Amino acid sequence: MLPEDQVALIRDHTVYSCVMGSRAFGLATETSDTDRRGVFLAPTPLFWRFAKPPTHIEGPEPEQFSWELERFCELALRANPNILECLHSPLVERINDTGRELIALRGAFLSLRAHDTFARYALGQRKKLDADVRTHGAPRWKHAMHLLRLLMSCRDLLRTGELVIDVGPARDDLLAVKRGEVSWAEVERRMNTLADEAAAAAAKSPLPADPDTAAVEDFLFRVRHRSAIA
């Protein structure tokens, strides 16, 4: 059970929360969980104590995870795939004025760094799938589906400069992978093709080389200042 002070941070100071996972990606089925992710703003006076507020909180509801605003922005500036996708969820459940400022700023977090971070994350997941094939003769098909989805998202981000996480028309093909109806050899071929397409897109992407860190810092300063004098 969460300490009451952490429950209060989520209850009283959440600035943005959304649904993620299969429901946000357009891949939900009847058995899909509802994964909730959020951002809370710890009141500025809490940082004046020796014991600082947490950078993240798991709970209080099942499948719920939240980050403190500054930590969230740090990870987004590093092009963390999970954080960037959270900012672009089509299923927003809670948002206030600070959250709307954050969403309005989400383009400032996008940069060519995404190619490296998405690719490294994909490589880690690919190694796990390969290990499953060696050990069990088949991958975890749900994980294979989500890796294909991630690679598609990365490629399209690099091509267009915009991050769209709903898979749209690719839903049926991806769910077929989840059901094990596509051979592992074909899944591997698709993964390799998507990785190659992402690399080609990165060479002529409209994305800037680096995120707009100054704009994000200005936002954080304004938010902390407002909280301090409230």
From TrEMBL:
It comes from Streptomyces polyasparticus. The lineage of its organism: Bacteria, Bacillati, Actinomycetota, Actinomycetes, Kitasatosporales. This is Nucleotidyltransferase domain-containing protein. Pfam families: RlaP (PF10127).
